[in-house]
């Protein structure tokens, strides 16, 4: 199942949501591709999705849940990837320019 929280995280003049899967990263990547989210929008265990894409995700079947439930679902599924286990240097990636034609 795919889950998304309400877009309320501000960045670059937009509001962003978090998209996760409680099944696998493969399911998450496939769904993100379906809604047009580029792979660079993936951060450890979730995709950062702008509000307009969040509406599309919900329309295509992602379940809207509270933000706290996003983390709970990841932990319960064993898919939570804490920052210290990330292959990155721990820096948050910038969201600007993630979606073509939208900055």
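^ Assign residues to that structure.
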């Amino acid at each position: 199942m795919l889950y998304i929280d309400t877009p309320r995280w501000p960045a670059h003049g937009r509001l962003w949501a978090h998209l996760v899967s409680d099944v696998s990263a493969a399911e998450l990547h496939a769904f993100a591709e379906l809604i047009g989210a580029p792979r660079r929008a993936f951060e450890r265990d979730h995709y950062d999705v702008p509000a307009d894409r969040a509406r599309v995700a919900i329309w295509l079947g992602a379940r809207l849940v509270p933000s706290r439930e996003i983390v709970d679902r990841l932990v319960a599924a064993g898919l939570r990837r804490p920052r210290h286990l990330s292959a990155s240097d721990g820096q948050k990636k910038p969201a600007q320019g993630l979606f073509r034609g939208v900055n």
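The radius of gyration is 13 Å.
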